[in-house]
Amino acid sequence: MADFLSDADFDQYRKLIYDESGITFSSTNRAILESRLRERLREKQITHVSEYYALLLKDKEELKLMLDSVTTNLTRFFRNQPHFDALVNYIIPEVLKIKKEKGDTKIRVWSAGCSTGEEPYTLAMLFKDKLPAPYSAEILASDISLKSLMVGKSGFYPESRIVGIPDAYLNRFFEHKNNGYQAKDEIMKMIRFDYHNLKNDSGQRGLDILFCRNVLIYFDEAAQKAVIDRFWDAMAAKSFLFIGHSESLFGMKTKFEFLKTDWACLYQKNA
């Protein structure tokens, strides 16, 4: 089974995935691509990778499902706590100052590459708890994985997945049922889950805070730059960008400014 994909097949598939999503596969993560493709072929009862490739070229829905299967969906509630400490202690007060000057009470947030929803629900809990009246937050949560979005939209998580949520938040914002926890309406209604491929313009404008963590690592430099430029266009004149703690815009030609807080490092748009 070592030659499930020939080198030519591998090049063909990785070019298609790159062209459609900006996600890069190299020889180091070739095994992941092969195992995910095997699953799709089994599901479709197709024997040959060339036959499946031909199907992808003509069937846009199957192409979406394939992209869904090859994206990694690792996430958890309150992942990388220092980012949320920076949000609560520095970013929210800064954004509130800006909003006060404008007479605007709505904070617009995008969780890009939200996977199964743990990040946007973490944000919703924090905003619900920390924002003074009359301010409120609306959160767009997007991903390329339809399966992951369905989990987020349902707001239900098994007990094994709620690790990391402080007890006070768990009791306030979730209801225990069926060996798991169901998010309550007060945080569910703050979030809109939507399919989005970061290769395309989101159409969003005037965002105050954008989280896109541990997503850029799947893109090469050219695709990263294109995504970051689209983020710039989507964000308000004074706004804040969080990327993964192992990711950096260092060396990239971008107008975002590096921002070091006492809790975490992030980027700001100061246009």
Explain the overall architecture.
The chain is an alpha/beta fold and 271 residues long. The chain has two domains: 7-70, Chemotaxis receptor methyltransferase CheR, N-terminal domain (Chemotaxis Receptor Methyltransferase Cher, domain 1, Orthogonal Bundle), CATH 1.10.155.10; 81-270, 3-Layer(aba) Sandwich (Rossmann fold), CATH 3.40.50.150. The chain is built from ten helices and ten strands. The chain has helices at residues 7-21, 30-44, 49-58, 60-70, 81-102, 118-130, 146-154, 167-173, 185-188, 221-234, and strands at 106-112, 136-143, 156-158, 174-177, 180-183, 191-195, 207-212, 235-243, 257-260, 265-270. Strands 6-2-1-7-8-10-9 form a seven-stranded mixed beta sheet. Strand 9 (257-260) and strand 10 (265-270) form a beta hairpin. Helix 2 crosses helix 4 and helix 3 crosses helix 4 (60-70). The chain starts with 6 loop residues before the first helix and ends with a strand. The mean pLDDT is 93.
Q: Helical residue percent? A: 40-55%
Radius of gyration: 20 Å
Largest sheet: 7 strands, mixed
- Major sheet strand order: 6-2-1-7-8-10-9
Q: Give the beta-strand count.
A: 10
Measured distance between first and last alpha carbons: 54 Å
Q: CATH homologous superfamily of the largest domain?
A: Vaccinia Virus protein VP39
| Count of domains | 2
